[in-house]
Amino acid sequence: MKGEKATIRKQQNAPPPDDDGDKRLSRPAHALTIDQIIEEIKTCPINGLLEDEARERLERFGRNEFQSSKGVSAAEVLVRQLVNPMTLVLVMAMAASLAIRSWVEGVFVASVILLNAVVGFFQEYKAAKIIDSLRELASPTAKAIRSGRDVVVPSPEIVPGDVVDMNVGDTIPADVRLIETMNFEINESLLTGESAPVQKTAAATFADDTGLGDRLNVAFGSCKVTRGRARGVVYATGGFMEIGLIATAVEQRGHYKRRIAPPRRLSEIAGPADVRFCGPLRSSILTEVQAALGGVGRFLGLNVGTPLQRKLSRLAAYLFGCAVACTIIVLAANQFRSQREVVLYAVATGLSMLPVSLIVILTVTMGAGSKKMAQRNVLVRNLKSVEALGSVTDICSDKTGTLTQGRMVARAAWIPHHGTYFVSPTNDPLNPTTGETHFLRGEPRHASPLGGRDSAAATAAKTSLVDPTPEAELWESVRDFVVTASLASIGKVSRNKGRWVVVGNPTDVAIQIFAHRFTSPDDHDSSSSSSPYFPTTANVGHEAINELPFDFYNKRMSLVYQELGSPNLRIFTKGAVETVLSLCTRTVSGSDGTTAPLDSPAIASILANTEALARRGLRVLALASRTVTNLTPSDAHLSNRPQIEQSMTFHGLIGLNDPPRPESTASVRLCHTAGIAVHMLTGDHLETARAIATEIGILRPHHDTPTAAVLTSRDFDALSDAALDALPALPLVIARCTPQTKVRMMDALHRRGRFAAMTGDGVNDAPSLARADVAIAMGGGSDVAKEAADIVLRDDNFASIGNAVEEGRRMFDNVQRFVLHVLAENVAQACTLLVGLVFKDEEKGLSLFPLSPVEILWVIVATSGLPDMGLGFEEAAEDVMRRPPQDIRKGIFTQELLLDMVVYGLVMAALCLSSFALVLYGFEGGRVGEDCNNAYSEACGPVFRARATCFTCLTWFALFLALEMTDMRQSLFRLSPRHRQDMDWRSARWLYNVVVRRNRFLFWAVVGGFVTVFPVLYLPVVNRVVFKHEGITWEWGIVLVETLLFFLSVEGWKWAKRVHRRRKRRRGSNEV
How far is 790 from 382, CA to CA, in rounded Å? Predict the structure, then answer.
């Protein structure tokens, strides 16, 4: 109904109501109470919007974007295809052809320009769209509650009425009216110019005309959360946010581009002593020269793009120099005569050295690789990381949620002088009524010393099932433990229409679920409860006052409550055992809740039981509380934390299990096989970290682990840089890890010449991510971490890092493949054309060209662009993750690639020249007509047929070399197909499975180039007038023999490389 539709508009500058009955808020959001804003927006503060309602509001109000994304411009891509160095060279060649009235050649070059531009445009535009869409996927996200569930929503899909949670490091997705806050501060300098963070409160309301900086119950979109947490209701999105209104006003006024200052000062160019004598004129000249050089560099691609793109642009510049040199050699060999055919041949020889579509192919390859990574849950934010992934030697990974499932389950709890509770495994860990609770009258250290993550359940099997008798009400120590556990956690557990709904971080939720096991049966199905009777945490008589949040240095969090009907404050704390114990002066000493001083024997007992639980793979937290009579609620703020967290009573330990992901063990093993060291940097207890690391294979379970392989952050940070560098190997596991420890770890890896990747999800991880060679953020992490990252894992899964490394290596191999193909073809063409100058027309004294200019251009078009693009789509080699990482310093231009380039190029050139010489001099007796470089005559028939034979050989060799490049060492005839049963190369299915199915794009590109030879050979006019060759007959025998020799040469060279590598490995193993 129209009256029920929620309209959430800004009171100021809001558009008039729509015809469908939408209405504005009755007052500005900061002037409305919490109940009023919820009522007017028609949302639920607990369950949020329904999914269907959220979709309907997204359609009605539009995406949460205050300015349309520029996206990919087709015009810009087209301009890049037409205005670039390679196209400019082709235009110059066309102009030279037309200037000397070589219309056929000029038109053909124009056709090449057009074809290259069209193909390049569609391929690059498609790749750019892919990359742009992936960047959108990696854009900031928001944590919203929809249909009672926590969901992560891309910020552009947030709608008015969404209930969102905001934590430290998050970017606020839209303008939000706060309904809950805990020490919540945001940086509003984006709007107000004030650099100091502003503390917010939810309960207050303000006058309608209150200024932006004084609206303390509102959080503005695009601002950063600097402290605490909050929940709020979105009331303005897109252009109706405060930041959106400013952006709209700026766009309406128009904007201008100011001149960008030169990147370096004059004093850095001329030196301090020269600046005094530099007048304004000289300064202006130097500035203009520098700007001009920068513009030339950008045009040539020398100072823009990724490192690999810049490197290939430099390669193209070098090849351009080689092209100029080749042109001069051709002219010099013909005494610099100005005959048309000489000029055309010189220009064509120069063009043969240029990788016309190399950068486009690289862009397409990287775009396709980024799309493939996205399909494997890896979003690329920075293309340079795609190049770098193949060189990663070390991965520093967090544990929780990355190597493990991130689904915490409370599996054990120890209450001093009472006993230990164990929870059996369950298929529904979010349901507190499933699974059995067992009780052991004793301490965890006295239980059976079982290993593995299921040891708690195995111990529980030897204990008694908890009996829910009224005597349970006498267990005051258990009551205190449960209340402390529940009120020290901010997670929420509720039942909605028969389904358990949880809200909060995994640790808090797990503790709350454990506490709910000790609630009254009346709160659950009576048939499913098997726990003692205790009041629910909802009616224990406490009102939340403030939160002292967890941070990586204190490693604890406390919540402050007011006892209802009493002036006393209650403090409930949970955190790392060591830090919580440092706050305690007393401990529980009996089941009746009595306490005793926390002396040395008690501390020793606590630490021993902590070790016992940790050895079972459990994350151990301590629980403590305190009743305060000398503080008021106004004193319970963060600055008084030392006075609040003191003289506490220790209530016990709770052990949580975050089981490893099923795929983590295989992924770690794969990294080790690939020569990548995996380091686990976690905030967990030392023994917990050791147990998990052993289980997933970071530590070898059946080998003695060096002491330095597992350290705490305290031990690690106590070592000097020199001591760290003196270690045989850096630690594989660092427990109780802090952000500063991660930074030192990254620096230590760099000093050893390692190329490292680092994972992170929190604000404090940003420094270490900035230090990493490849920064990896978790998809569910903070926006600060994502902005500092190169790639984002959508599923927070360590296995996805392995997938990213594999994809990075595949792309590295593919770039090597098509670069080698391009360079080998360039060498072949250059040698054929330059050595072919020795064939002379004795009457005119000019060279007899083995290839005509149009033939040269046709070979470039038919054998380079599409086949090289197909090589960029090649699947990963079978051994891609069995090889050590690539050397980032050498890049793609390895010694093997350079040697292959020379060998393949010389082989192709020698075979092409021999085919020309065999036809003309071997079978035709060297009969050369007059002016055979220009026109056909009967006397020129042998020359035209020899040229056709050479052209066919070069075209086929270049195409077949692309097939051979699918593996730089393995034989083309022994490539493993996707199905093992088809590995026999003699099988009739071999050609289809190995050559066709392996890479369909490459196969059809080769087939297309292969068949184009026939029409250009036999079509009248096209053959003699345009291509300057003649259809061949018996010469096909020479072509086939030369093709056989080509395959034998290439396969022989690959065989020699394999033999060399086997002998090298054998020598290495013998030395070891």
Answer: 5
Beta bridge partners of 502: 493
Do 829 and 859 form a contact (C-beta atoms < 8 A)? yes
Q: Residue 15 pLDDT more than 60?
A: no
The four Cα atoms 533, 536, 537, 538 give a dihedral, to 10 degrees, of -160
pLDDT tens for residues 986-1021? 544 555 565 666 788 888 889 999 999 999 999 998
Q: Which residue would you say has higher pLDDT here, 464 or 694?
A: 694
Burial bucket for residue 860 (CB in 10 Å: 0-12, 13-18, 19+)? buried
pLDDT at 610: 92
Q: What does pTM read for this prediction? A: 0.69
β-partners of residue 172 are none
For residue 398, indicate whether it is catalytic.
yes
Please, what is the Cα angle at 557 between 440 and 163, to 5 degrees?
Answer: 105
Contacts 24+ apart (CB under 8 A), 661-665: 661/403, 661/404, 661/405, 661/797, 661/798, 661/799, 663/797, 663/798, 663/799, 664/403, 664/404, 664/696, 664/798, 664/799, 665/695, 665/696, 665/697
Query: Angle at Cα 394 formed by Cα 391 and Cα 398, nearest 5°?
Result: 130
Residue of 398, 508, 658, 790 with catalytic role: 398
Q: How far apart are the first and last CA of the chain?
A: 81
Q: Which of 828, 851, 858 is nearest to 1049 (CA)?
A: 828
| pLDDT tens readout for residues 899-928 | 999 999 999 999 999 999 999 888 887 777
Q: Which amino acid is at 750?
A: H
Q: What is the largest CA-CA distance in the chain?
A: 121
Give 744's pLDDT tier (boundaries 50, 70, 90). Answer: very high
Q: Facing residues of 628 across strands?
A: 569
Identify the burial level of 803 via C-beta atoms within 10 angstroms of its C-beta, where 0-12 means exposed, 13-18 middle and 19 or more buried. Answer: buried
Amino acid identity, position 270 = A
The percentage of the chain sitting over the pLDDT mark of 90, rounded to a whole number, equals: 22
User: What is the Cα–Cα distance from 232 to 167, expressed in whole angstroms?
Assistant: 12
Q: Is the pLDDT of residue 17 over 70?
A: no
Lookup result for tokens 């010099």: 332
The tokens for 332 are: 């010099």
Say how far residue 821 (Cα) sits from the centre of its chain.
29
DSSP string, 915-978: HHHIIIIIISTT---SSTTT---GGGHHHHHHHHHHHHHHHHHHHHHHHHTTSSSS-GGG---S
Output the CA angle 854-859-861, nearest 5 degrees: 95
What pLDDT is stored for residue 158 in this prediction? Answer: 92
Alpha-carbon distance of 754 to 759, in angstroms, equals 16
Beta-strand runs (E) in 761-856: 774-778, 791-793, 840-841, 846-847
Nearest-angstrom CA–CA distance, 925 and 917: 10
